[in-house]
Amino acid sequence: MFEKVLIANRGEIALRILRACREMGISTVAIHSTADTDAMHVRFADESVCIGPPAAKDSYLSIQAVLSAAAISGADAIHPGYGFLSENADFAQMVVEHGFTFIGPSADHIRLMGDKVQAKAAAKAAGIPVVPGSEGAIEDIKDVALIAKDIGYPVLIKAAAGGGGRGMQVVRREEDLEDLVKMAQSEAAAAFGNGAVYMEKYLDKPRHIEIQIMADTHGNVVHLGERDCSLQRRHQKVLEEAPSPALNAAQRAEIGEITVNAISKLGYQSAGTVEYLYEDGEFYFIEMNTRLQVEHPITEAITGIDIVREMIRVAQGAKLSVTQDDIVLRGHAIECRINAEDPETFAPSPGKVGVYHAPGGLGVRVDSALYSGYTVPPHYDSMIAKLIVHGASRNECLMRLRRALEEFVIDGISTGIPLQQRIIGERGFVDGTYDIHWLETLMAADKDGA
């Protein structure tokens, strides 16, 4: 049993992990930059360690600083949350080498899934369906041109070492292939220090469906259903719901079983998410995230399972607390990501929060580290809150979400709340017929109309 866990993160996810630890009787250590001295996770933790100046590279991304904080605080284990060092295989390996437990998967699995080309090959070998495309990184443009011609345009060029839309180009004509491959390689090298790219068939109107899995060190693997993450802007998720309105029970069971079997073959442990594109009844592997996801609360809402708690238990060597037969999906849940940014221009909006009032009531959860008088720093990701709403049906969930968004008050800075209100009022969302291009198409129409 861990006595003390260091939380290698900040903001709402640090607070989320802290609460899980406290409910398990585990002491917590918060790390923070000088910009986060007054952050809520620092105030709530049993102890805290300042690890550097505001810039993430000198604080939250500094492996040396994080490990030093763990050593001086006497922590047993480190939970990385998401973002920052959560998918850094070298960090996970060094945590173990320095005598701490890493609350997450092995460094080998993080490294495998961190390389998109290797991840695709591993997924295919494990029985997961993949998008047609190049077998590995693009080496010879002539060979790739032949493959593209065979599978048909448009095709998608993607960075092998990263995501988030960087190093990604859609090629619609053969004559543009060489130039766009070079552009993607240049973007990938600048963003990830690795210019390798690969090619996949570009799907016109897919959904983004992800399967949440949990695995322990005793060979037990379960899936916790799916999440629909198709509402995206510039490949960044804006709103997620579970279960997906696009799947039926048979499709859910089928892709869940395929995913569980593959994860078992890989020998993976801890929480993870296998992401797919879904179109015309077919699933295609995108990537696997070897960490906790931002949108994990909607899975917790429909399953009643505390994913962070399970991660901690698995890291301690315990068996999963549930079997697949124990997992029943109940109702519907939606998460809105609330960012500190202008809802129309998306320009960041850091600054001091005035009045802060979080919505409440049955089925409403807010994960946030905000409070009245808190100053949102300009140095980090703009997400400042997550509104999670659960209902017995999708319609009940939508009505409750509308009410909760109306109650949500964050004064002093601009936020994305008006955008979320706009989204959930649109017919395409209400009907559940949207795809991964729907939101950007809607916003482009607004811009053209203006």
How would you describe the overall organization of this protein?
With 450 residues, this protein is α+β, with helices and mostly antiparallel strands. It folds into three domains: 4-103, Rossmann fold (3-Layer(aba) Sandwich); 132-201, ATP-grasp fold, A domain (Dna Ligase, domain 1, 2-Layer Sandwich); 207-449, ATP-grasp fold, B domain (D-amino Acid Aminotransferase, Chain A, domain 1), CATH 3.30.470. 35% of the residues lie in helices and 25% in strands. It has 15 helices and 20 strands. The protein has helices at 11-23, 40-44, 63-73, 89-97, 107-114, 116-125, 141-151, 177-192, 249-266, 296-303, 307-315, 394-407, 417-425, 427-430, 438-449, and strands at 4-7, 27-33, 47-52, 77-79, 101-102, 155-159, 169-171, 197-201, 207-215, 221-233, 236-242, 270-279, 282-289, 332-339, 351-352, 356-357, 364-368, 375-376, 383-391, 409-410. The strands form five sheets. An eight-stranded antiparallel β-sheet has the order 13-12-9-10-11-14-19-17, sandwiched between helices. A five-stranded parallel β-sheet has the order 3-2-1-4-5. Helix 4 runs antiparallel to helix 5 (107-114) and helix 12 runs antiparallel to helix 13. The longest helix has 18 residues, at 249-266. The relative contact order is 0.11. The model has no long low-confidence stretch (mean pLDDT 95).
The rounded Rg comes to 21 Å
Number of β-strand runs: 20
How much strand content do the residues show? 15-25%
**Helicity range:** 25-40%
Please describe the biggest sheet, giving its number of strands, its sense, and whether it closes into a barrel: 8 strands, antiparallel
> Biggest sheet, strands in spatial order?
13-12-9-10-11-14-19-17
- Whole-Å distance between the termini? 59 Å
Oligomeric state as shown: single chain
Q: Within the CATH hierarchy, at the fold level, what is the topology of the largest domain?
A: D-amino Acid Aminotransferase, Chain A, domain 1
CATH C-level class of the largest domain: Alpha Beta
Named CATH architecture of the largest domain: 2-Layer Sandwich
The CATH superfamily of the largest domain is: ATP-grasp fold, B domain
Number of domains: 3
Indicate the structural class.
alpha+beta
Whole-number average pLDDT? Answer: 95
Which ranges are low-confidence, i.e. pLDDT below 50, for 5 or more consecutive residues? none
Shape: globular
Alpha plus pi helix count: 15
